[in-house]
Amino acid sequence: MTTTPFISRKGMTRRSMLGAALAAGAAVPLAAVGGPAWAEPAATRFMLPVPTGPHPVGTVQLHLVDRSRPDDIAGPGRFRELMATVWYPARDVQRYPVAPWMPAGALQAFLADAGFGALTPLELLTAGHVGAPMRRSGRRLPVVVFSHGAHSHQGDHTVMVQELASHGYAAVTVAHQYDTYTEFPDGRIAVPLRDRQAPTLPGDFAADLRFVLDCVEQLAAGCNPDVDHRELPAGLLGSLDPRRMGAFGWSKGGTATACAMLADERIRAGLSLDGPMQMNPPLAGDLDRPFMMMSAAFTRATDPEAAAFWSHLRGWRLDIQAQGAVHVSYGDNEALFPQVAKLFGWSAQQLQEVIGTLDPDQGVKIQQAYPLAFFDEHLRHRRGHLLDGPSPAFPAVTFLP
């Protein structure tokens, strides 16, 4: 397989998290440690931080086909095929296995593309329990859908996703076919397609998000949208609230979130994690629903597209920036790369070349706290004070005028 370099701030082929940062910043330090270091990962387990919410987390995969969109790449009579994962508050999780960060086959392809196949024996585990029954509270759950970045995967912001689920949200992540690493139930491994004709523009991602909203509505109505008719966790059907749906995404997924909101009023609130806002088709119309930007590399001061999008926001809006954050800082890398650095003996400078100078522990807390505060305010009408202005608990976070 070939890879697309993670170098251009303006290009739309950024690779997320592990493979991207390894390819960009880790080749020298890994080469420096020499051969013996490769023997250690077989016994190493990486963990994401435990969510702070009161509920344990369950998760289940969905195999979805959008029969409104023919897929010429897949062949005649084929339609847009997606994998999605639902994360939710659960109960009785002890009897259910812990979910991996990525399916094994997809993880192997992901790391091999980055030139780090020797890392595949590592276990990367989440806080989710596969198939655990949903915790029923008597009220339907608000829903957020997540869109990943270019040449990435649906698990690359699991810290945020499982945090939301632990606080009572249903979070649905989608793997955007032809621009992702994922695994289908029949064992097929999907990898990014480096073809300009592939449906991988922000507008294509946005269409996927809107289709996932359709599937959420089916779940809310008690119908199983999984094309293989696999059994869903107890309590999931009929438990989601289609009247309280939000969306968020990283990089191109942040742009896709904006595109989807402009086209679909079902999305009540949107969050972009350093989205470049390079709209295709071009930006048209204003957005009167709440939108929040967490900026790093793509700031309104440096990128005309981000500034132009901001000018079209007519409702509640907020733009924050964590000092020392780089483009990949708002994601799981803040939790995982310090573990990689420790394993391979990187210096502090080598780690900062990958994830920026933002303190990793602070970075994790930021991505746990701010998205939750945003969706709590605009989907649950639970207004706190975190979004009012600078907080002593998060000294790195600045509010951009």
From TrEMBL:
<dbReference type="InterPro" id="IPR029058">
    <property type="entry name" value="AB_hydrolase_fold"/>
</dbReference>
<keyword id="KW-0442">Lipid degradation</keyword>
<dbReference type="InterPro" id="IPR006311">
    <property type="entry name" value="TAT_signal"/>
</dbReference>
<dbReference type="Pfam" id="PF03403">
    <property type="entry name" value="PAF-AH_p_II"/>
</dbReference>
<keyword id="KW-0443">Lipid metabolism</keyword>
<keyword id="KW-0732">Signal</keyword>
<dbReference type="GO" id="GO:0003847">
    <property type="term" value="F:1-alkyl-2-acetylglycerophosphocholine esterase activity"/>
</dbReference>
<protein>
    <submittedName>
        <fullName>Acetylhydrolase</fullName>
    </submittedName>
</protein>
<keyword id="KW-0378">Hydrolase</keyword>
<feature type="signal peptide">
    <location>
        <begin position="1"/>
        <end position="39"/>
    </location>
</feature>
<dbReference type="GO" id="GO:0016042">
    <property type="term" value="P:lipid catabolic process"/>
</dbReference>
